[in-house]
């Protein structure tokens, strides 16, 4: 016989059913177009490599390592020191001695290097990165569709929670058209990129989160987007904090009707009967 606490535990387990779904959350691993076109492609991150060996990084290295001799170029040492500095600062709130190696301008250069990497590896740099998240995109909108149905029963899920990493979040944010600056960041345009919106340190910091909130309103459901707890407006619907859900759907119509994982990732035609492949 179950004790009350046992029963309670059981109920909680039932209430908080969870499962691991890598198909949904680690879509990029299964997307051949992404794996071959970006992850395994040695030229996909060319801008990052160029910047790492460019004049801005070179200057940071020279200053940080007090390096007068041009014969020694420890390319990754400076980055390692910067990571130690930022980890100790963000995890332990410690002003780490490693940070003394850098001034603010150095930090900006190193921040740009990280942004370049995220941009070209997981974001707008390659369209396939965003497209690989099509299954997750569709999942989100299916969930919202269900939640927004009128006269929904009281037992319907009040919330759906998905947990993943930045590598899952960035492609989805890119697919939604967020943080897309007019000029892509490259190895050569550091000096004109100070005002960029693509700042990975702000978009995917520790505990990054993306929230879709559906409101039951008079003219129909409204949808608000929050990124790291701050309201963000949908591209193309910038006049409203929480536009009508149907307007959001209309904005993403092309993705709701298309954005097929098999076609985008495998280059296969679609609409020829069910896909029975494993
Ligand atoms: C590798 O990346 C480069 C630069 O983005 C691209 O032009 C090329 O088509 C990619 N190669 C493959 C095999 O996808």
TrEMBL record:
Signal peptide: 1-22
Membrane spanning residue stretches: none
MF term (GO), any: acid phosphatase activity
A Pfam match: His_Phos_2
Keyword annotations: Hydrolase, Signal
Record protein name field: Multiple inositol-polyphosphate phosphatase 1b
